[in-house]
Design a protein that fits this description.
- With 579 residues, the chain is of the alpha+beta class.
- The chain is built from 24 helices and eleven strands.
- The strands form three sheets. It has a five-stranded antiparallel sheet with strand order 4-3-6-1-7, sandwiched between helices. Strands 8-11-9-10 form a four-stranded antiparallel sheet, covered by helices on one side.
- A hairpin with a 6-residue loop joins strand 3 (258-264) and strand 4 (271-273).
- The longest helix is centred in the first third of the chain and has 30 residues, at 2-31.
- The protein is elongated, with a radius of gyration of 30 Å.
- It starts with a helix and ends with a helix.
Length: 579
């Protein structure tokens, strides 16, 4: 009997100990300050945010930004993480995000200023500066602190890097965190997304735009596009080039004017690779790759255009093959095409090079980059030899170049920490954790091959890096600012929604009217411009669905790099100058 009582007491004691142990474990996991708690909470916030972000209201969803609002809700109910851990994950997430954005936009950053891109980027710059102007007017009219207004501005234009840049600049100057920056962003963001789409609709209504006419105009413009490589088939009828070599013709017309790919001999009805010393005879046919601008001069110089498409040449040349080869040999990164002497060594011809969706003329001075696709014409054995030289290994291309990524991030930290002094600005200006990596990524992705750095990153790898970074950043911002969110909104913060809507609407409609009335921009192009000037993917998705083609995406990509840079820069300057 005594033994049974003793056993029960031991059991109860063990149960109490186990119960206390489990309760302590649960309490530590859910409300503690350790690493396991932090990772668990971040995982829950990010997973729920992504799930809820897919919900559409009137066809519009908040997307990944819903992670921020889930973080705010969790923080409001006392689910928080250690301040130092939160700070680390937030800053590291921001670095990953802006660096991957820089890698994405870098190759097209400088080319976006060419020709029609200058007009689009000028208008996008006008939207950014007009948004800053409206922000300053509201700041002086209402007395709302500039740090809060910068948060509202970033939310109104749906620009997360601007939010990160503002927070970093404020921390550098004051050594503390201002939660109202994130709160202003969170309050203004939802109506910012809606406001962008409403601006697009308003311009369509004001000008009574017909989508059918705009789409037809885009199709006609594409047919007369002046970009990229152009294929022309010619018959030699100009006596001035009879018995002349291709190199002689090319030298007289200027270096890089055209690339002769193949020649059809009138004498024996056979196709041969066109080399520099190939002699042209009367009634020979030549397949030439050039640009739209150079085509008229080449036609006048050589002969008459014949109706003979590229596929017809391929059918005729049974002894030759045409293959697109992927450059994956890292030793070729940055080398000029002429240095390889492929035509001389292998008897093949390279006519076009594809890079980031653009066809480039294969001139000897063109620097190759890993990830380029090369159009090679030659015999089966010769093309196979060239393929071995160039690589053509998708597996190798899919391998991430981690060394370059971390070299770039390290250089970004160095650049971002350098203080720059300007007259009239009391505090030294730093590019910070947002600006430094962004600029370095843009420069490396464009000029990294000159340093023998492989900067190519597959789209999926870049997207993964970017999404991991932005979700970590948004989750940490939400968890850090959520405690004061409801109190702020109730105590007058609801007015921020209206101010944010004004910052969204006024610049977009103003520049939209100017772009349509004075610059005669196609409406489909204008939609992409407005979406790109706010770096807003939901607005781009709406524009693409409305247009039914990729015209909005083209103008979006044209203005996105410069706009992203200006959003980050202006957010920091507003903090440094007015806080």
């Amino acid at each position: 009997m005594l033994f049974s009582i003793f056993a029960v007491l031991i059991g109860l004691r063990y149960f109490k100990v186990k119960k206390d142990l489990y309760m302590e474990w649960i309490n530590e996991l859910l409300w503690g300050q350790g690493i396991a708690h932090s990772i668990l909470l971040l995982s829950v916030v990010i997973a729920l945010g992504i799930l809820l972000g897919k919900i559409k209201i009137f066809g519009v969803s908040l997307g990944i930004t819903m992670v921020l609002f889930v973080g705010i809700i969790m923080s409001h109910f006392d689910f928080t993480i250690n301040h130092e851990i939160n700070h680390f994950f937030k800053e590291f997430g921001l670095i990953l995000f802006v660096y991957s954005v820089g890698l994405q936009v870098g190759p097209g950053f400088f080319s976006s200023f060419k020709k029609g891109g200058i007009t689009l980027n000028m208008l996008a710059t006008g939207i950014v500066l007009l948004g800053v102007t409206v922000t300053l007017v509201i700041h002086y009219a209402t007395g709302i602190p500039m740090s809060t207004m910068v948060g509202i501005l970033s939310g109104a234009v749906t620009n997360t890097p601007g939010l990160g840049a503002a927070q970093q600049a404020y921390s550098d100057v004051h050594g503390a965190v201002d939660d109202t920056i994130a709160l202003g962003y969170a309050v203004a963001y939802p109506l910012g997304v809606v406001g962008i789409i409403l601006s697009v609709l308003a311009i369509r209504y004001i000008f009574r735009i017909s989508m059918e006419k705009e789409q037809q105009a885009i199709r006609e413009e594409d047919e007369h596009s002046n970009n990229g490589a152009k294929a022309v088939s010619l018959v030699v009828t100009n006596p001035n080039v009879f018995e002349k070599s291709i190199s002689d013709i090319s030298d007289k017309m200027g270096h890089g004017a055209f690339v002769a790919s193949r020649v059809w001999r009138h004498s024996n009805k056979r196709i041969e690779i066109a080399e520099a010393n190939t002699i042209l005879h009367e009634n020979d046919k030549v397949f030439v790759i050039t640009t739209e601008q150079e085509a008229p001069a080449i036609i006048e110089r050589i002969g008459d255009v014949i109706d003979m498409e590229r596929k017809q040449w391929i059918r005729l040349e049974s002894q030759l093959i045409n293959r697109r080869i992927l450059i994956t040999n890292t030793h070729l990164n940055g080398k000029k095409l002429g240095e390889l002497q492929l035509r001389k060594l292998y008897g093949i011809n390279i006519t076009r090079i594809g890079r980031s969706g653009v066809e480039l003329l294969a001139t000897p001075s063109l620097a190759l980059q890993v990830g380029d696709t090369v159009n090679v014409v030659g015999t089966d054995s010769a093309v196979a030899s060239v393929e071995k030289l160039l690589g053509n290994s998708m597996k190798r291309l899919n391998e991430p170049n981690l060394m370059t990524i971390f070299i770039g991030i390290g250089l970004g930290m160095v650049l971002g920490s350098i203080p720059f002094t300007f007259p009239g600005i009391p505090q030294p200006v730093k590019l910070g954790l947002a600006g430094g990596p962004l600029i370095v990524a843009i420069l490396l992705s464009r000029f990294g091959y000159k340093l023998k750095l492989i900067t190519y990153t597959t789209q999926s790898a870049n997207l993964m890096l970017r999404e991991v970074g932005i979700t970590l950043f948004l989750a940490c911002v939400g968890l850090g600012a959520g405690e004061k969110f409801v109190e702020t909104v109730v105590n007058g913060g609801y007015a921020w929604i209206g101010y944010g809507f004004l910052i969204t609407i006024i610049p977009l409609i103003t520049i939209g009217l100017i772009g349509r009335y004075f610059f005669k921009l196609n409406y489909l192009t204008l939609m992409g411009l407005l979406a790109g000037s706010t770096t807003d993917p939901p607005a781009l998705a709406y524009a693409n669905a409305t247009a039914g083609n990729d015209a909005p995406a083209v103008s979006y990509a044209t203005v996105y790099p410069l706009t992203m840079f200006l959003r980050v820069l202006t957010a920091q300057l507003l903090i440094l100058l007015f806080v």
